[in-house]
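Sequence only, no structure available. Ideas?
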Amino acid sequence: MLSLAFIVGMFLFSFLREDYLTIRQIYYSGVYFSLVSAFWLLLFFISHLYDLPYLANHKNFFKLLLKLFLGGCLGLCFILLVMLPQEISYPFLSLLIVVSLGFLIIWRIFYNIILSHWSLKIILISQAPEAEFLEEYLQNHPQYGYRVVKNLSGANIDKFIKKLQDHQPKGLLVLVADKNFLTLIKDKDDLAVNLWSLESFDNFYEAITGRVALSYITEEWFQEYVFSRNKRFYEAVKRTNDLFFGLLLLIISMPIWLIASILILIDSGKPILFQSTRVGKGGKEFKIYKFRTMVLNASLVGPSWTLENDERITKFGAFLRKTHLDEVPQVLNIINGTMSFVGPRPEEKSLVAIFKAAIPLYEKRLLIKPGVIGWAQINFPHTASMEEAREKLTYDFYYLKQRNLLLDWVVAIKAWRIPFDVPTH
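Reply:
I predicted one. Tokens follow.
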């Protein structure tokens, strides 16, 4: 699409001007247009515009697109005025930017329409309590390309076969069912012509929602998807990345340390750092470091959870929390190995005890090292209730199963949006 915009831009520029661009001007314009295109693609990616839940022509999509357009244009104006060499044709590049953005916006609108109107039919058969949620989720997000035509939860194999034979569905059909049901279906050759694809409910649910179906999580699940997989190479590379980028971030963040320390002292006095006992990998306790954002002994005058409009938060502490700059000292935890950049967020010892007593298998999230940012954090707001903690755990278990270097980089890149769309904790 961007390449097409480049070609159209060249034709428009030639049509509007009597003189022609030199080969040198075309070359430099092409090079910098490629950089500009990469800039827009990266901006769209980290802003969720390539995430399926956002691919719908509703006001939230267009509001986000407008914000990115205005912010991106400011950045590009800086590039045009300050950084580009004299060889480039400014009118040509400006026209290319306008044309490319026009193409992108029009394409995204039509692409969203196409996704919403073209869909595969799904027959859903599952005993899981998440089945009803999945049906409603797909109904509210047609851009995924699936439409549940039958929810036969609780059906047996004979009744299902009879219904399928009596009412032949038109078009491609996907059967999403529990694994034991799929095993029986695969033995029925007469159904193969009607079914385009067989998908296990738990895997399909994960692919659509980015989290696990908690009702499927058992000890056997961890044996199959966690304990049986060799992650030694991944863990070694991840630790190397943590050390390198941790030391780099420590050096880069020195001005933040200096300014924050001075303002904390002015605002509420000592101490500058807040230390809290958290539970890490294997249930081992460690001290997590943050810039102090609350009054002294805040835990003695209030609950462990941070309340909305909590009066214990200092004036400068509110700013640190809103921007998440209070997390900067956790680079020390990354360097000393108690935390990683990416992983489930560590909880306080008292909260872990509460969650373990109320949520089955909650302690399994302690199988891996906790992180400063996590898959749950970029997909789910801060928890303030037991039910929210249970839902957040479904994202932690998804990361536990799927963790790899690519997923870590996706989480790290998208984490820049946390100060803008995730409420402070």
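Residues 2-116 form one domain.
Hope that gets you unstuck.
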